[in-house]
Amino acid sequence: MGKKKQDHRKRVAKRNEAIKAQQKRIDRAKEDFIKALIEKEKAAGKFDNNPAAPAIDVNLGEGLQI
Questions:
Q1: pLDDT tens-digit profile of 47-62?
Q2: What are the residue boundaries of the structural domains of the chain, listed by start?
Q3: Cα→Cα distances 61→31, 46, 47, 65, Å
Q4: Residue 58: helix, strand or coil by DSSP?
Q5: Among 12, 23, 32, 58, which residue has the least CB neighbours within 10 Å?
Q6: Could you tell me the pTM of the whole model?
């Protein structure tokens, strides 16, 4: 493998590592934001006494039933 190919592969690897690190920072920030939002909602009492979800009638009508 030539010197130029080696240098190119090194640059590509370095760029890919930077992209992965940036994506990890973004994912961590998203996770922290969602956690903070949930804590804020809990503090406001929005998770207290959740009513049961209404039952959904799934009557598909007449016809072939599997």
A1: 777 667 677 766 666 6
A2: 18-44
A3: 43, 37, 37, 9
A4: coil
A5: 58
A6: 0.59
